[in-house]
Every structure is written in C-alpha cells, then in structure tokens.
Amino acid sequence: MIKITNDVMDIASRIKEIDERYEVYYNPETSKFEVHTGDARQAIIPYASLDARAEFYIRRTRRENIDRLIKELDEENRRLSEARDKRVLDNAINNLDNALR
C-alpha cells in the first residue's frame, strides 16, 4: 500500500477534511485507491484516478447518509424493475401479435 499525502488536485487533503482520521492509499495489487482510518478500510474508490469524483464519493457514502442512500437505491431498483416488467410485457404482446398474424 502506498500512502497518498500529496497529489496534483489535493484530493487526499480534501478527503482528510471530511474526517481527520481518513488516509488515502493506493493499492498496487488491485490498482485501486482506498480510504482508511488506521487499520480499517472505509472505502474503495471506484475510479481509476484520484480526482474530484473520489471526494464526492467519500462524502456521499458516509455513514450519516445511509438512510438517503438506501432510499436512492430502493428508488433506482423500483425504476429498473418497472422498466424490466414493461420490456417483458411489450415482448409478450409483440410475440402474441406476431403469432396471430
């Protein structure tokens, strides 16, 4: 693990401002950036580079935002389920229509 203390856009410092315990590391085995507090990994940053998206991701996924995140996930899952159900129904209607021709 390589500790990141200085980076071009000061993302590591900006992440540390979110929580002073946060430290940013680069894991060369996984080619991922990780945020740790001491020995505990808090997050794996899902982006290939350390940029403003990483700071946004860490802010968004903090524990105090869990209720909002669960609500967003539930809404997205509902939307995807409705879209899938509509596709299945449309395909069934098209198949039935084609069979009747």
Describe the structure.
- The protein is an alpha+beta fold and 101 residues long.
- Helices cover 51% and strands 21% of the residues.
- The chain contains 3 helices and 4 strands, in the order βαβββαα.
- The chain has helices spanning 11-18, 52-60, 66-100, and strands spanning 2-4, 22-27, 32-37, 40-45.
- Strands 1-2-3-4 form a 4-stranded antiparallel beta sheet, with helices on one face.
- Helix 1 (11-18) packs parallel to helix 2 (52-60).
- It is elongated.
- The termini are far apart.
- The model has no long low-confidence stretch (mean pLDDT 91).
List the helices and strands and how they pair.
Layout: E1 2-4, H1 11-18, E2 22-27, E3 32-37, E4 40-45, H2 52-60, H3 66-100
Antiparallel strand pairs: 1-2, 2-3, 3-4
The total beta strand count reads: 4
Helix content: 40-55%
Rounded mean pLDDT score? 91
Beta-strand percentage range: 15-25%
- Tell me the Rg in angstroms: 21 Å
Structure class: alpha+beta
Describe the sheet with the most strands.
4 strands, antiparallel
Which strands sit side by side, in order, in the main sheet?
1-2-3-4
**Cα shape:** elongated
| DSSP helical segment count | 3
Order of helices and strands: EHEEEHH
Low-confidence stretches: none
Annotation keywords:
101 residues; alpha+beta; four-stranded antiparallel beta sheet
